[in-house]
Amino acid sequence: MRHQQEDEPARASEGLRFLLREQENLRRSKKPDSGGQHKDTDMLLRALVEAEIDGMAVANQLTALKETIDNLSTEKRLSKLHSASLGRQQELLLEKIGMFENTNRSLRDLLREWSEYEVRERREWLVWSAENEALRKKLADRETQNIRLFAKLTNKEKEASKLAEHLDFEKDNVKTTEELSRVLKSTRSHLESQLERAEAQKTQLTAQIQEMQQSHEQKQEELCALQAELQTLRQQREEKEQKQEQEELVVVAQRAQRAEESARQLMQKLQEKEAQLSRALSTSSDWCLRHSKEAAAKGQLEQETSALQMKMTELSAQLHLVEEKSRTEREELRDQLLQLSAENASIKLDNQRLRSELTSSEEKFRGFHAEARHLKSSILKYENLVEKYKKKVHQARLDSEECYLKLEMTQKETREVKESLEKEKEQVRQELLVRLRELELLPEKLRRTEQQLREAQQEAEVYERRNTEHSAALSEVRLKVEQQGAQMETSQQRNLLLQEENGILREKMTKLERKLDNVTAENKEMSQALVSKDGLTCSLQQQLEEKTRECSILSRQLKQTLDDAQRQVDDSLQKLLTKERASQSKALELQSQLSRANTDLSQLQRSKEEMERRFKTQLQNLKERLEQSDSTNRSLQNYVHFLKTSYGNVFGDSFIGS
């Protein structure tokens, strides 16, 4: 029994050394960050081992006390040696109990610290989880930033495509403007040819009008001559009639005087003169008949002259109307000719101005076309660079996704490991709590044993007096000690089981620590890879930012050049499109200006067609008026010919000859 009692503390010391060695190995294998945690676990394990050693010492002391009591029961006498050994064992037992209480207190303190440390660990775990979540958020933010950069790149590509489309649109606009200039040149040449034709027709019409005016003046001169001839004829007729009447009166007066003188002188010759009177009466009757005939002819001539005067007034009124119409038509034609000449001059000036503006705009468009080609080549270069950076960003994204997946896998593994560690920690904690509860019951048992020992001492003191009572008390003490020995054996077995479980747990802890070391190494490698990838992403982001800045600068330059080009094009188009409203710097407004130019061209074509129609209508009107004037001239000529024939018929061939 004593050898067993001596072997048990040796075994406990060997187990303690083994535990300390394992703890040192664990300390060496673990990180410096987890030093406080391992120190706390070492302290707790040491306190547990010390508590076990103290418990074993108390158990050994109790076994020794049991042996001494058995010896006392066998010898049934209390010698000085036995009393000294009992006192010694009692003192040792009290010392061991005090040591056990101290270790128990230290163990309680350590458990409290352990609980506080677990609380701290949980807090640190929460902080670490928060930091992990923050890192995940940062990774998500980086991914969102990458997505945004990719979106920006796509937007830049879209803007570049839009700029290319805009350049193509401007090229189309330049082509359309060139086509419009060609159409304008063709229309201008056509209008110039038409204007030349109109001018030739105008000269022909002016010549015809001058010829008509000359013919009209000749006709007027002929009418004036006819009127003068009619007036001379009238005067001649009146003079002839007056002369005839005067001659007849003179003849009659002479005849009357002669008759009176003959009557006075030749009253005698009345018979001769009666014959002469009869002859004279016959001649006078003839003369009366002739006079009546001449009066009738004179009345007819007066009627004819009045009718001719009426016709002459009508003809003069018609001539006056025709002259007024011709004057109004001449004035209208002059106004139209002046308008046409002014329009031709303005059109020529506009054409010259448009030619100069077209030449300047063509030169500007050529310069802009060259700039657009240069910008397009630069845009293609930057597109290639952007595609390269896109590929790099895509590779970086793939690498970051792989790293992120690896991180997720490692995080999952760490979570699983931590969950398993927490579960094992909870199991160990529960087992330790159970052991602590069992150990908390030990001081009560020790106190009971102390009371029993005191009672045993009292009984030993009273042993000499009452052997029977002492034997009964010893039997009771034997039973109690046997029970306590059985309890101690069960506690030893439990301690052995707990040691085995501790060994298993230590092996698990070593495995878990190895896993943790591997995981931490992988985490370090992943963190280093992430740091390198972060550096690459940062460099790529910086390069992307530089390229975006360059692209923004180039886009600004492009915008400025395009704005300048648009402004110049707008100015040229404004000058070309009859100074319309100032157009904005956008391509849509350029389209609207082109549509306006098309509408203006259509309006010019319509105005041209209207001018042609007007010229045609004016020509038709002039032709109709010329035909009317020709018809009136023909009718006047016919009427004059009729008058000539009628006067010839009336006055004879002498009038025609005159």
TrEMBL record:
InterPro entries linked: Odf2-rel
GO biological process: one example: cell differentiation
Coiled coil: 153-639
Entry keywords, A to Z: Cell projection, Cilium, Coiled coil, Cytoplasm, Cytoskeleton, Developmental protein, Differentiation, Flagellum, Microtubule, Spermatogenesis
Cellular component terms (Gene Ontology): centriole; centrosome; microtubule; motile cilium; spindle pole
Compartment annotation: Cell projection, Cilium, Flagellum; Cytoplasm, Cytoskeleton, Microtubule organizing center, Centrosome, Centriole; Cytoplasm, Cytoskeleton, Spindle pole
Top-rank taxon: Eukaryota
Keyword RNA-binding (UniProt): no
Family: Belongs to the ODF2 family.
Protein's UniProt name: Outer dense fiber protein 2
